[in-house]
Amino acid sequence: MERDPIIPAQPPDIVRLAAWLLVVALILAGLYLGQDVLIPLAIAFLISFALSPLVVWLGRRGLPRVLSVIIVMATVVTLILGLGLLVGSQVRLLAVQLPTYQSTVRTKIDDLGETMKGPGIFDRAMDMIDTVQKEVEEAVAQNQESLPQTRVQVVPAPQSPLRTAIAWLVPVLAPVAMAGIVLVFVFLALLDRGDLRDRLIRMLGGNLHRSTDAIEEAGSRISRYLLMQLVVNVTYAIPMALGLWLIGVPGWILWGTLAAVMRFIPYVGPMLSAIFPITLAFAVDPGWNMVLLTVGLIVILELVSSNIVEPVLYGTSTGLSALSLIAAATFWTALWGPVGLVLSTPLTVCLLVIGRNLPQLQFLDTLLGSTPVLDVPTRIYQRLIADDPEEAIEIASTAIDDSSILEFYDRHGIEVLRQASHDFLTQARAEHRLRVVNGMDVMLDDLREEYPAPDQPKGPARVACIGGKWEIDNVACEMLVHALAFQDISAHQRPAGVLTARYLDKLDLSDVEIVCLSYFSRGPELSARSFCRRLRHRWPGIRIVLALWNPTELVEEDAGFDKLGADAVVTSVDEAVRRIEQMLSPELARQRQVAPRPENDDQRVAALRETKVLNGQAREELDALAARAAEVFDVEFAVITAIDAEREFIIGQSMDLPGEVTEDSRNMITLPREDAVCDHVVSGDDTLVIHDTQRDPRFADNPAINLWKTRFYAGAPLRTTDGLVLGALCLLDARPRDLDEGELELLKELAADVAQAITGQDASEDGPKDDAENSATTGQRVPK
């Protein structure tokens, strides 16, 4: 019995790739073939994005939406028609004056020809070319004379008046029809904005939250982009027109308007708008002063606009990389012509936002975005694997310049070693392991030399850092020794080794008070317990800190370490430094745990007492706001605190909490200021987020935090219009967690609402903000 031949199945990746290529081809074909319909739609939607805030603003003033749309559209059309009439008058005036400039142009060209005239090294070559050309022309003429010639006269057929009118009107009516279609689409898009949004959400499908975020972000970014681009162009055009008027260039209104319009075209628009006034200045002035002044004016305006006006108004980039901006401009120009060049940046921003919010199209964010696809630790680790420690040092130095050497070790350095430990037994080859270890040694030597501690610790080492098992455990010890030096704690690093009596005999721990054992292995319990037991047996009075850089479940649950024989367990460089400092100098550590009082503390306390909130005013409203915050962020509870001169008051809470209650009728939980849960927020005047309070010595020993069994803390300052911080809105949870940037902004907004409820005034959201660096992109920018 014969069997049917087995046909191997196609690999699913190839089938998926073929399907994607087919879909992309169909989309490109549809974009190209349907450009007559899609271009007006795209222009209309972009204009509607820019005009939508004006319609919303009028709607909030009580006007019906239809009337708001009509007012906005009528205003825009009136401005365009008025500007068109003004430009038309300038064009007619220039048309009358142009013949008078011919003699000036001819004279300048003759002068240039005389200047460039004279013997040169190419004269003989040019003479030879002229001779050859004359001989060829004479030969062709002789051949034509030898042939019989018949004269033929072509008489064109007379055209009817209708065809002549159509030939003249079609080129004129096409743009007018396009403008009319765009205006109709803009009116409908502004009128039915909600319905269009619902249909787009339905088309995107999937997660409703993601689809909504994508549409809202795209609309907001493009709207601000177009409005800011208009502001930038106008702030460029007005000085240019006034400058040309002072210089004496005719048609200065026309050239200013042209500059404002042409700057909407990326890259080539500013250059094209500069050609016309420079050419006219060349034709008007018999000399060269007007040309030089015009060129100087344009160069100065470009420098000011690019380096001052645009960064101030935009604030940040479009989020598109330089390569994607150029590629997008090329792609849309090839697809839709010059109109595609104008629309390239807004359309590509839409694709970027969609890719950022929809998981299925996340590759668009990777391809188009300017945000680094690899974080700092991964970039450093990759450079070390590639045996490029110099570039790894450069990346590390840049990260340190943005923060500090201690933050670099805590946030990036340990993470590099954590990735190396993860790959140690899985992906890394022996060559890769050697490169990472050698590269880290080189980088740490450079960092210690470039960023030395201000005051080098003196005297014998009080702390010994010992690697537990691997070579990367030793590297972590080197980081910790360098970090301890910044706190004036003398420490030295001891290499890892096999736990034998011979190894322990080599350890000199006579003057050492604390031993820090470093482990990156994911199951260090057996090795750590054995090491601690032997150290206790040899040096009974020594204290042991166990640094587990790869946190295990025991660390998250904060249990079981008493059986390992360690006095403390840490999981980060910052926690290790704080814990060791606390063990060596408890009083000094206690002083540092207490937040310093701000310079304006007296004014702050006076403003707090003026609100009467400590007397129980607005208590019900504050409890409701705390409950709302706890529900929005899905935390166990939230509290609103206010700090007086000596005590902290819980003036709002989402649930009943244990704690000391004042004896009067205010019925508030109070804490001494040195034990306050939000004093660090008041002192720092900024939002504070603690992923795990048990890992932060400032909160690990706080009585209220321990009483409430809290593991997560986030506090946002309650700031008045005068910038005085009265207290904080605090989120607390029984499990460690984090907040992303969007959640942090939302927490600040809720804190502003709380401050307004306390003071009865619109609270100020201004505070210390990190100056975000612009992405290393070229081209146009858009605000967030």
From TrEMBL:
<dbReference type="Pfam" id="PF01590">
    <property type="entry name" value="GAF"/>
</dbReference>
<feature type="transmembrane region" description="Helical">
    <location>
        <begin position="329"/>
        <end position="354"/>
    </location>
</feature>
<feature type="compositionally biased region" description="Polar residues">
    <location>
        <begin position="774"/>
        <end position="784"/>
    </location>
</feature>
<keyword id="KW-1133">Transmembrane helix</keyword>
<keyword id="KW-0472">Membrane</keyword>
<feature type="transmembrane region" description="Helical">
    <location>
        <begin position="291"/>
        <end position="309"/>
    </location>
</feature>
<dbReference type="InterPro" id="IPR029016">
    <property type="entry name" value="GAF-like_dom_sf"/>
</dbReference>
<feature type="transmembrane region" description="Helical">
    <location>
        <begin position="230"/>
        <end position="255"/>
    </location>
</feature>
<dbReference type="InterPro" id="IPR002549">
    <property type="entry name" value="AI-2E-like"/>
</dbReference>
<protein>
    <submittedName>
        <fullName>AI-2E family transporter</fullName>
    </submittedName>
</protein>
<dbReference type="Pfam" id="PF01594">
    <property type="entry name" value="AI-2E_transport"/>
</dbReference>
<feature type="domain" description="GAF">
    <location>
        <begin position="617"/>
        <end position="768"/>
    </location>
</feature>
<comment type="similarity">
    <text>Belongs to the autoinducer-2 exporter (AI-2E) (TC 2.A.86) family.</text>
</comment>
<feature type="transmembrane region" description="Helical">
    <location>
        <begin position="14"/>
        <end position="33"/>
    </location>
</feature>
<feature type="transmembrane region" description="Helical">
    <location>
        <begin position="165"/>
        <end position="191"/>
    </location>
</feature>
<feature type="region of interest" description="Disordered">
    <location>
        <begin position="758"/>
        <end position="784"/>
    </location>
</feature>
<keyword id="KW-0812">Transmembrane</keyword>
<feature type="transmembrane region" description="Helical">
    <location>
        <begin position="66"/>
        <end position="87"/>
    </location>
</feature>
<feature type="transmembrane region" description="Helical">
    <location>
        <begin position="39"/>
        <end position="59"/>
    </location>
</feature>
<feature type="transmembrane region" description="Helical">
    <location>
        <begin position="267"/>
        <end position="284"/>
    </location>
</feature>
<dbReference type="InterPro" id="IPR003018">
    <property type="entry name" value="GAF"/>
</dbReference>
